[in-house]
Design a protein that fits this description.
Elements (H helix, E strand, L loop, with lengths): L1 E2 L6 E2 L30 H23 L21 H4 L1 E6 L13 H20 L2 E12 L8 E11 L4 E10 L9 E13 L16 H30 L1
Antiparallel strand pairs: 1-2, 3-5, 4-7, 5-6, 6-7
């Protein structure tokens, strides 16, 4: 919630459902059972089960994409690339995981990873639009594997879809845990971020159409369009339901 301290008016600014799993303190690779909770009403339990099934489907879709690779782009020559293409705005960030990024058990806080992912997605959106941009939503962010202290993580983002007023950016986090236990790079986190373009006055601006060049980019664009239409329909249904209450 945000509050105008002059008028006292309040409004909802962010809303999300976060999913956690309990791990053993003695063996962090062991997932424990969650103690049941007492629901205030049956509808509350049914709504929770519905959200649970929806996030399972979202996670399944994202896991199926874990074979995808975004090659890190640190110092690309953007002058040789055509504006509004995937390769033009594609961006990467490399981060060494330090103690301040981690929990007491030495694994990265989810919020730290999400912040880095949002930064990369924001850079992609800004390079595509050349305007002010803001995060509109984050869909199906999945932590596939834990990231240990001392790892080097590469956060890479690419534009997948644009509508008239929004753009979808896919972000991957790949980890290289080379300090304590050398192993091959692995996919740790993945998500889709939706951004909108704003004027200096904070009003929505049209988003330049994404120019797809390869068959994979065209495929990802159509998949993004499907997610966009599905999300739009879901929000319209929620608005109608809220209006009836």
């Amino acid at each position: 919630m945000s509050e105008n301290i002059l008028t006292g008016a309040k409004k909802v600014t962010n809303k999300a459902t976060l999913w956690y799993v309990p791990l053993s303190l003695k063996n962090v690779n062991k997932v424990l059972e969650v103690p049941p909770i007492q629901y205030a009403r049956k509808e509350q339990e049914d709504e929770g089960k519905k959200r649970y099934e929806e996030q399972k489907l979202d996670r399944l879709e994202t896991k199926q994409r874990n074979g995808d690779v975004i090659f890190p782009v640190i110092n690309p020559d953007r002058q040789t690339k055509e504006p509004h293409t995937v390769s033009y705005s594609q961006s990467s960030l490399i981060h060494l995981v330090g103690p301040s990024d981690c929990t007491l058990l030495g694994f990265v806080h989810g919020g730290v990873t999400m912040k880095l992912m949002d930064e990369v997605a924001g850079i992609v959106a800004a390079r595509h639009c050349k305007t002010n941009i803001v995060t509109a939503s984050v869909d199906a962010i999945n932590f596939h594997e834990k990231i240990k202290k001392g790892s080097v993580i590469t956060i890479s983002g690419r534009m997948t879809f644009t509508s008239n007023k929004s753009m979808e950016i896919e972000v991957f986090v790949d980890a290289d845990p080379f300090v304590d236990e050398p192993r091959e790079r692995y996919r740790a986190v993945s998500a889709f971020f939706t951004y909108v373009s704003l004027s200096k006055e904070g009003k929505p601006l049209p988003v330049p159409q994404l120019l797809t060049e390869t068959e994979d980019e065209k495929r990802r664009f159509e998949e993004g369009k499907g997610r966009y239409l599905q999300t739009k329909a879901k929000r319209q249904a929620q608005m109608q339901q809220a209006a009836q209450q």
